[in-house]
Structure formats: C-alpha cells, structure tokens
Design a protein that fits this description.
The complex is a heterodimer of chains A (330) and B (246). Chain A has one domain: ABC transporter involved in vitamin B12 uptake, BtuC. Chain A has 16 helices and two strands. A two-stranded antiparallel ribbon of chain A has the order 1-2. Chain A is globular. Chain B contains nine helices and ten strands. In chain B, the strands form two sheets. Chain B has a six-stranded mixed sheet with strand order 6-7-8-3-9-10, with helices on both faces. In chain B, strands 2-1-4-5 form a four-stranded antiparallel sheet, covered by helices on one side. The model of chain B has no long low-confidence stretch (mean pLDDT 88). Classes of the chains: A mainly alpha (330), B alpha/beta (246). At the A-B interface, helix 9 and helix 10 of A face helix 2 and helix 3 of B.
Amino acid sequence: MKWKYYPYIPVLLAYVVLFLIGKGVSGMWQLMSMLFFYCALGQAFNIFLGMTGYVDFGYVAFLGVGTYGMAITISKLSYLQGYGILIIIAGFLLSMFIATLLSVAVGAVALRLRGAYFAIATIGVNEGFRFLIEGAKIWNGSEGIIFMSDLNRIIGSKSASSLCTFWADVFVVIIALLAALVTLIYMRSKIGYALMALREDEDAAKVMGINVTKFKIIAFITSACFAGLLGASAWALKTPYVFPPEVFEIHYTVEAIIIVLLGGAGTLLGPIVGGLVYGLSKYYLSVIVPGFQLLIFAPIVIIIIILFPEGIIGMIKKRTKGRWVERFII
Amino acid sequence: MPLLELIGVTKRFGGLVAVNKVNMRVEEGEFIGVVGPNGSGKTTLFNLINGVYFPDEGKILFNGRDITKLAPYKRAPLGIGRTFQIPRPFLSATVLENVAVGAMFGRLGTNLGIDEAFEIADQVINRLNFQTLRDKIASNLTPIEKKMMEIARALAMKPRLLLMDEAMAGMHPGSINEMVGFLKQVAVEEKIAVVSMVEHIMRAVVGMAERVVVLHQGSIIVDAPTKDALTDPKVVEVYLGKASEE
C-alpha cells in the first residue's frame, strides 16, 4: 500500500515558512505568534467540530482549565528550584489531565444529545465553570493566579522572558503539528471513517455497526486534550497570569468555529488556511480601518461561506480531484 | 435452529399498535418477501430486527442468541445488514469509501484492517459492475445509483441476514431482473438470508422470494410459499378490497 501521509508535507511547510518569516523579518514575530495560535486552535477544534459535525460552544473551557493547570503547577511547585523544565512538563501534563477530565464529564452527558441540542447543552459550560471558580473560590477565585515571580524563581528571569516571548509560541507550533498529525492518523484509520459516517448520517452509521457514542467521545477527548495544552502554552506560559473572565470567554469558541468553517471543516489543511485568513484579516483590518474591522470582516466571512460552503480547502479538494496535487490535499 | 426468530413481538407507538404479536422465522439462506400496504408495519418490523426500536413485548433471537434489547451497532457485527427505503449514503465520501465503511464495521469488521476493508469493497464493486462509479462522490450519484451503492455497502458487511427495504422500487424492470439475478447468486454463494420488503406484489418478489409474509395492520395474515400467498383470498382482499356480494 502506498504512503498515506503526503498531506502532512504542506502542513509542515506552512509552519516552517511562518516560523522563518517570524524569525527573519523584524517585528513579525508577534503577528506570527498570533497566527500560530489561531492555526493551532483551529487544528485542535477541527478534530471534534470538523470530524464529527457537532458544535461545542463551551470549547474554550478546555483552554481555560488548561491555562489553570499550568498556572497551578508553577505557582504550587515554585519552591522546587532547579527543576524548571520538569515543572513545566508537569504543568503540561496537568493541563492535559484536567482538560481530559472535564471533557469526559461534559461528553458523558452532552454527547447523548444530537445536533443542535448538543450545542445548546454545551453553551453554558464555560460560563458555568467560570462562575464555579469565582463563586466557590477555587484556585484563588476571581483574584486569579499571577505567577510571573514563580516562573522567574524556577527558571531564572532571563529564561522566563525568553519562554514568554519565544518558546511559548514554539510550543504552540508543536501542539499544532501534533494535532495535525493525530488528525491525519485518525483520517487514515477506522476512527476517521466512523466519524465521517456518523457526521453524514448517524442512524445509518449505527445500523452499520458503528458505536457512534464511542467515536464521538474519542474525538471529543482528543480535541479537548489539545485545547488544554494550547491553553497551557499560549495563555499560561505566554502571559504568566490567569483570570477567570479572560480564559472562559466564549469569543474564542466563536473564533475557533469561524476558523474551522472558513478553512474547511473536517479537512486537514483547513484549519491552517482558516487560521491564516482569520488572523491576517483581523490583524491588518485593525491596522487599516481601526474600529471597523468587524464591520469589514463579517461580509468577508459571509462571502467566503457562500462561495465555498465546504470551506476553502473543501473547494480546492474538489478542483484538484484527479490531478497530481490531489494526494497532498485533504 | 432458525437464523432469525421473532416470538410474539409487539411494538406500540402511543395507542397505535404498529407491530402486533408477530411470529416469524427465517432460515439460513432463505429468500423471503415481506409484503404489505403502506402503514402495515413493515418498516417498524425491520427497525425491530436491527435494533432501531426495541419491542414492547416478545423476543427476537438471532442464531439462537437473544438480541431483543441489543444495541443496533452490536447487531451488524453479528451479521445483520440493511438497506433503507430512501437511500442513506455518506454523501461526502466516494462510492468506494462508502462500501468500505460497510466492510470495516460489518461481520468481519473487528479483525479487518483498513486496506483489507478497501479490498473487500473493491471486490463487491467489481461484482456489481460498478467500476465506473468507484471514485465518484456519493452526492453526485443518481437515485438508482445510490440504491445500488447501498446494496453494495450492505453486501460488504458480509451479512448472514440482509434486510432490504423497498430496494427495487423505482428501478427499471431490466435493472430489477439484473439485480435480482445478481443478488440470488451472491446470496446462494455466501449463504445470505434475504428479507425483502415491498409495498406492492411486484414481479421482483415473485422472481426472488421462496416465501411471502403478508402484513396487514401490524399482524401477519399470510405466511406461505410465494405462489400460494399471491392467490390467497385474504391477500387479494387487503389489496383489492372484498369481493362484492352481488
């Protein structure tokens, strides 16, 4: 059987090019870091939204608890000097663990619901979690956790600043690459075909022997895991503080949905294209027409969705059918 | 031991008794036509056999095993395949992928790798003379092609019992003959019992079924070899009304 991983080449290429632009052109790193985040966010969310067709409005909660996972680990273990890197690894593990726990809890209840009912059930998850933290004063409640000084203590102030300004973004790229790899592995395995089947017709899938609940939960947990990691690096390590209202903001879920749909839901390259289109428009529109960026951006989104209902990659995939580039695009 | 046995199966929706104390047996490799006018309970009967609904009363045995309350996705691996009245293809996938999904999660599913599933799908498509459509996206198929693909998908599951819901309706008589011939051949080779359900007593049933079960208002009124069933006064009455007294 022929090699099945050609589509990973453009994924790698995209991030290498972005990375080189960020490093090579002065003043570009900040923009690239934003693009990395949006691409990674799309890539992680796509595993659930794109592959199952279910919309999770509470998705940002997984990033939120991921941020907390890292913040708690660093602030609680800051007395262990000299173990800097290990503490950060522990932070990533805890982030992933909490996000997984939350996804199992939410998934076990909400994934029994279908379509729009699922979306409605999840819409309160992030707000609910925020009020739980603030109200019950868990993890410092509404005061949040500020752990810059803890970070300085465990790895030194110089490393801490390069961690915040450079390595946190590199971690985001690594997470995006891992999420893309897992997406591709899923697509090329029974999991991918099961998810495709249940996305297209859940009842027919059941009758054909597919345990739809199991596969939905697999996709949900995988997607949540990456969201936890993303929160831990893009939010906790990049800005070493965490406040509940900021990390449970539904706005990010909406951004993730737009990115996935723009690029092409359920495609491998879609989140990258969607993340780039979204990030670049957001950035440059706010420079060119400050204050009016959303007014301009909204019609752009509408036009793209009308022209390419299957997303940009969905359209390209159709156009390239039968040509040699086909093998790279999925 | 019969392949499938229904014992006193009843299903109600509110006050409506959709399937009423049905007793039915299907032997291995048998061809059965389930006939009945619109609303007679045929589709409900199918949904009970493959687990979309659970019966309110009665038992369903498959190969001697009680499957009355078994989840639908656990029945396909036992060897129960099905096609739908209105085809339900996975529209974004190609014909080959659709058929391969059948193989992946069907009776051989658990031990089957992806590549082997695609091989089986290829074989089924070749047998059906479907090669030209192999790489077409399912949403671009004609309704008839969708029906054919659904049959291919069900056969790729390597079922022991195949439930066909109005599979031939709307097909060209020529294609029906071809399809019936093909199905018979495959079913005999692979020892598949076929239960085909139709609204009207069509030539297809006559040509294919060894036995006909006639449903009327949720109950079986006739269960007899095809020729006898078609001339049974009760069947004539269901379809044409009672003979006038005059």
